[in-house]
Design brief:
With 391 residues, the protein is α+β, with helices and mostly antiparallel strands. Helix content is 35%, strand content 42%.
């Protein structure tokens, strides 16, 4: 047994389902046959730069410390410091053997500066070369460099005192000891350039100090190649589209083969009443009872438009008696002194139906007359042909 459904609703649902099936089928086809292409960076060579700075404070003979040296991370008394033994370590490591050239040097910078709003403002600077530039090659997976330097603190403090006496400028001063390491080479036709600068910072011209600086650096790097990589088909997405497509096809089949389309004929009276209320609802006044009507003053109106024009002319509202059942609302009124204008919907519908029937009958008569004329014309032509043959 088929389920009855409104014809327009059935056609609409079938159209929506067909479009949905087509769209989901397209997405499924695209997912299976046109996988996503993604740009991925493939590492050709990976490496790491690592540097550290270690130091040890050696002391002058003094009455305070029982040992002749102090370890890192302490506060040191300038008067007791003899020299600072500093060790710079650098290590390069890669995932395979390569050939890279490099240089390094170690410099000391004595700097006079002031701090303004947490910004270092340099006033003067003096550079010293502690280790002149040296060349080195990396032709294996790893390379290690180690340099030891003894820093005489008194030498740099004496220099600062001379500058202060000469310039009459009192400012903060530091000693920056820096190892500058630079790499340059070619790996798989790709250029590589790296620089790394471990350092320590020693305050000068002060009674005590702490050492700070960039003492531990690790700087990884890589040479990469960008490739277009095809991603595998997303099975979950394909399954999702497949399930939706299956459900839509089943619903479409049920709608086509197990439902019967019926044409719902709308009540012409209801249709007419809805049109009146939709178009002129703001002009209508509902009454609890019909207005008093006398046959002498009653004027019947043919259409709602005529009644609206009369209401505009006399400046009165259009009235009707309210009924819960719309079929009982059959008359609309406009009153003007002793006259009352009435629109009877039943008469209006009957008149409309009569006009349709008259028009249909007229059309049928016209068709019949056309056939008679055609028949007569054909008979005349046949007689003319017979006369020609007899002649």
């Amino acid at each position: 047994m088929k389920i009855k459904i409104n014809k327009k609703l059935k056609i609409g649902l079938i159209s929506i389902l067909v479009l949905s099936v087509g769209f989901i089928s397209f997405l499924l086809f695209k997912e299976v046959n046109y996988p996503v292409i993604e740009e991925q960076k493939i590492p050709l060579y990976s490496y790491n730069n690592k540097s550290t700075v270690n130091y040890k404070i050696f002391l002058k003979p003094n009455m305070l410390y029982p040992t002749n040296s102090l370890d890192e991370g302490m506060i040191y008394l300038t008067e007791f410091v003899d020299y600072i033994k500093t060790t710079f370590n650098y290590e390069f490591s890669g995932d395979r053997a390569v050939n890279i050239e490099g240089t390094y040097d170690i410099v000391a910078k004595v700097q006079g500066f002031n701090m303004e709003k947490e910004q270092v403002m340099s006033i003067w600077e003096k550079n010293y070369t502690l280790v002149s530039q040296k060349n080195f090659n990396i032709n294996d997976r790893t390379k290690a460099i180690k340099e030891e330097i003894n820093i005489s603190l008194d030498q740099y403090n004496d220099f600062v005192k001379q500058i202060t006496e000469a310039t009459k400028i009192n400012c903060q001063t530091n000693l920056n000891v820096i190892m500058n390491i630079n790499l340059k080479g070619s790996i798989d036709n790709n250029q590589i350039e790296e620089s790394i600068s471990p350092s320590i910072v020693i305050p000068l011209n002060t009674n005590m100090f702490q050492i700070s600086g960039n003492t531990n650096i690790e700087k990884p790097g890589a040479i990469e190649e960008t490739k277009q990589v095809q991603l595998p088909v997303n099975k979950n997405q394909v399954m999702f589209y497949g399930i939706i497509l299956g459900v839509l096809v089943i619903v479409l089949a049920l709608l086509i083969f197990f439902t019967e389309a019926i044409i719902v004929v709308k009540d012409p009276y209801e249709k007419l009443l809805k049109q009146i209320f939709k178009k002129h609802g703001d002009r209508l006044v509902a009454l609890n009872s019909n207005p008093a009507v006398t046959l002498e003053g009653a004027v019947m109106v043919k259409s709602i438009d005529d009644l609206v024009r009369i209401a505009d002319e006399v400046g009165k509202p259009i009235m009707y008696k309210y009924r819960p059942d719309y079929k009982e609302i059959n008359k609309f009124y406009v009153t003007n002194e002793e006259e009352i204008y009435i629109l009877d919907l039943n008469s209006m519908l009957n008149a409309g139906e009569s006009e349709k029937q008259d028009k249909k009958a007229s059309n049928e008569v016209e068709e019949l007359m056309d056939k008679i004329k055609e028949f007569k014309s054909k008979s005349i032509e046949d007689k003319k042909e017979e006369s020609k043959i007899e002649s």
